[in-house]
Design brief:
Structural class: mainly alpha
Number of helices: 17
Bound molecules: carboxymethyl coenzyme *A
Oligomer: single chain
Strand order of the largest sheet: 5-6-7
Distance between the termini: 67 Å
Radius of gyration: 24 Å
Strand content: 5-15%
Shape: globular
Helix content: 40-55%
Order of helices and strands: EEEEEEEHHHHHHHHHHHHHHHHH
Number of strands: 7
Largest sheet: 3 strands, antiparallel
Length: 436
């Protein structure tokens, strides 16, 4: 019978080593070796042993996880086993967040209590408003969000009790409940508008729209189509296994810092234009292209290495991002309310040309989640600077779930990669006067 091992022969010593393989549950063909098993491979007793070298984690699993499954070749995304398409159609963001965090869909009572607990924590301390006030009028809302979520740790010192289940539960409610409030207050500040307080009669996304767009009306009523569209967008962004931001959450969290500081680190990672900041860049790119007839010239420039086609390509998906497919479908419903965003025609033309072009076909570059989301957000009235913020709010549930999974995994320790040192060998210090 075939053995589940690899045999490695060290040609320097002619020694052979048998290394066990481990498997993911699904698909069964995904296999891995433990990198530390390679350390026994040495040329001498004082040799450190073989390491793996993998910049950017191109082929390294940093954890075992039960939360999100992606098959990048087939374009499949599931949270806790449930296909993203079914969740987008039948679930709500808060229900999906519960699923991601606790592994199962909630019962009626669980959902009621969960919704109550999150809603109960939507208010922020009045002092937080004061330091939002301190930001410059044109401060980027994502910068404000990163700073204010980090600052929450100073308001809740009990957050340091990361192995206390009650405390973790409370910080989870606070984080998911307060992120929309921080985001909306950052937005209102950038618009020079008074803050609008949470309305706990509304849904999670309905209340968010209220805090963003409420004017003089006594009670804000969100447009139900836009409220649902935003909820679906939040479901699609809730988790995405080990991406840059989540890796930051786990890595920073592995030092056993409080979850607010770790979420701030994750949000900072998400801010970058190659990650959650890409939706903002897509809008800027579409605006710069300006009209459909300029698309071929733009594609030519991308192929010549003069910039990227933002919203295209993915480390894991080598097929159409399933989230982009769903977003494209809901665009029409949103445009019926808001009017059609003229940038959509440019985006559709970019997609059409890119999907037929050898450069993109060969590299398996398809639209990702950010390609169409910005067009919808813009039509809904969000300025481009808010786009990464709209990614960070729903991703908070994923970050917290991944953080909790990391903390309860007995194999996890403080994250501390190795390096392959390539610098100078030991040398003696030269006094200043002897340096040329
Ligand atoms: N436009 C043009 N060429 C591209 C693009 C693009 N958007 N993405 C990748 N390529 C090319 C790249 O130049 C390289 O070509 P070559 O083999 O000739 O050097 C090849 O495709 C492989 O790309 P890579 O950079 O090695 O791939 P990666 O896995 O390191 O990067 C990525 C993934 C998402 C950072 C990258 O595709 C990218 O920069 N895309 C644009 C930014 C973007 O849309 N980001 C959002 C990602 S999805 C949401 C999220 O994660 O937040």
């Amino acid at each position: 019978m075939a053995k589940d091992t690899l045999t490695v022969i060290d040609n320097r010593t002619n020694k052979s080593y048998e290394i066990p393989l481990m498997y993911g549950l699904y698909p069964t063909e995904s296999s891995a070796i433990r990198a530390t098993d390679l350390r026994q491979i040495k040329v001498s007793d004082d040799d450190f042993g073989v390491m793996t070298y993998d910049p950017a984690f191109m082929n390294t699993a940093s954890c075992q996880s039960k939360i999100t499954f992606i098959d990048g070749e087939k374009g499949i995304l599931r949270y806790r086993g449930y296909p993203i398409e079914e969740l987008a159609e039948r679930s709500t963001y808060l229900e999906t967040a519960y699923l991601i965090l606790y592994g199962e869909l909630p019962t009626k009572t669980e959902l009621k209590n969960w919704t109550h607990d999150i809603t109960f924590h939507t208010f922020i301390h009045e002092n937080i408003k004061k330091f939002i006030d301190g930001f410059h009028y044109d401060a980027h809302p994502m910068g404000m969000l990163v700073s204010t979520v980090a600052a929450l740790s100073t308001f809740y010192p009990d957050a340091k009790l990361i192995f206390n289940a009650e405390s973790v539960k409370k910080q989870t409610y606070r984080l998911i409940g307060k992120m929309p409030t921080l985001a909306a207050f950052a937005y209102r500040h950038s618009q020079g508008m008074p803050y609008a307080y949470p309305d706990n009669d509304l849904s999670y996304t309905g209340n968010f729209l209220n805090m963003l767009f409420k004017m003089t009306e006594l009670k804000y009523s969100p447009n139900t189509v836009l409220e649902r569209a935003l909820d679906i967008l939040f479901i699609l962004h809730a988790d995405h296994e080990q991406n840059c931001g989540t890796n930051a959450m786990r890595g920073v969290g592995s030092s056993q810092v409080d979850p607010y500081s770790a979420v701030a680190a994750a949000a900072a990672a998400l801010y970058g234009p190659l990650h959650g900041g890409a939706n903002e860049q897509v809008l800027r790119m579409l605006t710069e292209i300006g009209s459909k007839d300029k698309v071929p010239t733009f594609i030519k420039k991308v192929k010549a290495g003069e910039g990227l086609l933002m919203g295209f390509g993915h480390r894991v998906y080598k097929n159409y991002d399933p989230r982009a497919k769903i977003i494209k479908q809901i665009a029409d419903q949103v445009f019926e309310v808001t009017g059609r965003n003229p940038l959509l025609d440019i985006a559709l033309e970019l997609e059409r040309i890119a999907l037929e072009d050898e450069y993109f076909i060969k590299r398996k570059l398809y639209p990702n989640v950010d390609f169409y989301s910005g067009i919808i957000y813009q039509a809904m009235g969000f300025p481009v600077e808010m786009f990464p913020v709209l990614f960070a709010i729903p991703r908070t549930s994923g970050w917290v779930a991944q953080w909790e999974e990391m903390l309860s995994d007995p194999e996890q320790k403080i994250a501390r990669p190795r390096q392959v040192y390539q610098g100078p060998a030991q040398r003696s210090f030269l006094p200043l006067e002897q340096r040329s």
